[in-house]
Amino acid sequence: MTGGFSTPKKDKAVKVACGQTVKTGQILIRGINTYKTGLNTRGQGTIFALCDGTVNFSRKKTSHGKFRTFVNVEPSKKVLKS
Predict the structure, then answer these.
(1) Residue 1 binned pLDDT confidence (cut-offs 50, 70, 90)
(2) What secondary structure, in 3-state letters, does 34-75 show?
(3) Domain boundaries along the sequence of the chain
């Protein structure tokens, strides 16, 4: 079908893997609500990086007994030249 609703959307997905390096502003996850923002990330529908670094996923148990997956970006250590 051309322009029909039977075609599944391909833009909703996890865009990066654990341990992958990302740049500031790069989209990490789009359109999936099961992942929550962690350290150095921001967004609701689209989670993006706030700094350069490597991506890590962590699972934490909430006070209600549910497990949540958080997306974190560990900042890369840049050497400043004098």
Answers:
(1) low
(2) CEEECCCEECCCEEEECCCEEEEEEEEECCCCCEEEEEEEEE
(3) 13-73
Model confidence pLDDT, tens digit, residues 59-70: 999 899 999 999
What distance lies between CA 49 and its chain's CA centroid?
A: 7
The domain over range 13-73 is classified in CATH as 2.40.50.100:
yes
- Facing residues of 49 across strands? 41
**Cα–Cα distance, 78 to 20 (Å, whole number):** 17
Instruction: Provide the residue type at 74 as one letter.
Output: E
